Amino acid sequence: MSTTNARNMRWNRMDQWLVISAILLLQDFLFLSQILAETTTSVHIVYMGDKIFDNPDTTKKVHHKILSSLLGSKEAAKNSILYSYKHGFSGFAARLTKSQAEEVAKFPGVVSVIPNRIHKLHTTRSWDFLGIHHSSSNTVSNGINLGEGTIIGVIDTGIWPESVSFNDEAMGKIPSRWKGVCEVGEQFSSKNCNKKIIGARWFLKGISHHAKKLILGNESSEYLSARDAIGHGTHTASTAAGYFVENANYRGLASGIARGGAPLAHLAIYKACWDISVGGCSGADILKAFDKAIHDGVDILTVSLGLNIPLFSYVDQRDAIAIGSFHATAKGITVICSAGNSGPNSLTVSNTAPWIITVAATTIDRAFPAAIILGNNLTLWGESLDAGKHSNGFVGLTYSERVALDPDDDTAKDCQSGSLNATMAAGKIVLCFSLSEEQDIISASLAVREAGGVGIIFAQSHEDGLNQCGSFPCVKVDYEVGTQIVSYIRRARFPTASLSFPKTVIGKWTSPRVASFSSRGPSTMSPSVLKPDIAAPGVDILAAFTPKGTTKNNAFQFLSGTSMSCPHVAGIAALIKSKHTTWSPAAIRSAMVTTASQIGNDGSFVSEEGSTLKEADPFDIGGGHVNPIKAMDPGLIYDIITEDYIQFLCSMGYSSSSIRKVTKTTRSCEKQKYQGLNLNLPSISVPNLKKAAKVTRTVTNVGNITAVYRAIVKEPYGIEVRVEPQILSFNSDTTILSFSVMLHSTQKVHNGDYRFGSLTWTDGKHSVRTPLAVRTIKFES
After folding, report:
1. pLDDT tens-digit profile of 419-465?
2. Both ends of the chain: CA-CA distance in Å?
3. Residue 19 falls within a domain, yes or no?
4. Same-domain pairing of 171 and 249
5. What are phi and psi of 628, to 5 degrees?
6. Which of 53, 103, 569, 643 is deepest in the core (most CB within 10 A)?
């Protein structure tokens, strides 16, 4: 007994010693972790608001002085700083430790210090569909507006300069106001710029050290230059301003003349996004791109990237696009951004700042149907971009469940990698059913190919946009068609099928419809600002692309996303700017929103893609589907100056001091009722109508000198709308007039849903339409 007690006591003392040792080791680990955190540097953006000095060199010296004071020497400051923002606004990006970032935030003049953030890219027939019929390059000589003299800046993944879309045939002289450069780099020389691509810059300093190491170590396909390794930037640039290219096509599909919306506009390229999974587009690089674009003298900026929800406030410097675009807009540059690809869920729209033109995506009237002929001679239809080599003859057809490697494993249903039995799938077309968002037709086709299959039919819920499967035959169908094929497979003794090549069919599909992926409003940050603003084509858009595995310079590719709709609107903005050179960004936005269409090519209302096909509302398409012809002559415009945006920020509850730090304005916030509703937007959104509200707007006549406009109201359900005055009379002395819109709820039951309507001013020639969105809330009687 005594021996056992002694042994237990020894074990207890050993346990206590192990516990004490573990605690000491943990303390050491935490202490070392704290030291490591204090000595590890990362990129921070030190934002100082609007620039104080007109001379950029003086601003830069201030930045270096701050860093020198913080770090103890000029040499340390030189090694730390990455960018000096000194043209559109003031600030710098630098590598700092956590404690250094906290310390510099206390320096006079520093608005905020934020860690660098990563933004993501929002990834021929379309211009004819929009009504711009430039049939060939011969159009250049007949006086039609093609965007001459305007400069479109593209913040994206760079450009493939040899593409035939960027030849400078018939381009005019480079505008004398242009101050940009053509930066040389890997496989990019000054000769890659011309009268079409008049400038190119690239920004890499903001991405992580690990990402940069991948590029420098040749572990990616990237170029250390403005050259585009991804194709996204080349695609968006050519969509906005590509020159005429005859017989453009993707493997024979969609053959025709490709061109951008403004074929004679100049392009300025700002590469801030990189082809690395851990890189993307850093906030520091994006801000520098905005800063340089402001300095260089662009007229339009197209930015097909953004952040996901939850969004940051408009005075929070973590949203580089909101901050950069504010300063660009203040300098008269029109900024167009993609709405995001998180649809069809509501409250997902991004890039919602009121000074940004936010673009949703729609379909066009072109499709690529592919026939599936079953062994019983039944022909079903799917969609495909597959134009590779494959036999049109009948081969075996099977359902993925039947060739599962493990019959109890559900991953075979949507053909996940390694889930199929190669012996059973070999030589057959495999039908797969999508079960999750993680699996798509490309991944499934790879799994079928690995298992020896010769083709894939992929059944999924409705989703706009087609993907290429290389040379592997793949056809996308909906669940209804997929179920019919499964039924045939289960009945047939030896099921077979033949996949035909897709065809290009134009004008047979009702369009436009809101793309399933297009992010929807209302804005989560500022629901009184109706977002998106406008919709444009963004599904299966054919445009120039980076050649893959070839030296050809006439590569074209289909892409889908609000990334594609954004440059459509940028091209139209360039056309408007070319015709109306003095118009502000707000005027250009107003012209597009108030003249947009709500009617499809079949005479019915534009609908939202999906199972219900409901009528699209302003949270789907903003003012509607852009109409570039009518936007050239809108009749009336809703204009906004920078001071108006500042007062709007005041209405959101931001303090005068925080707004002054961002804008460097000396103006204080004004206290006005309904101030948040009275920003002079071409739309009206009232998110919290208790009983009644009054909204004011001001319009400027840009049409006939003498004109009389009358108000036509389509009331939202349960809302009485009264306009005062109901008639606006303009003449040579009266070009600007204001009016009020009184809203009164008549609803007895309040369910918190938005109701939609419109206010249209018409003089018989012009129809200036303002969308209305109103949500009533319960109020105390």
Report:
1. 999 999 999 999 999 987 778 899 999 999 999 999 999 999 888 88
2. 84
3. no
4. yes
5. -65, -30
6. 569
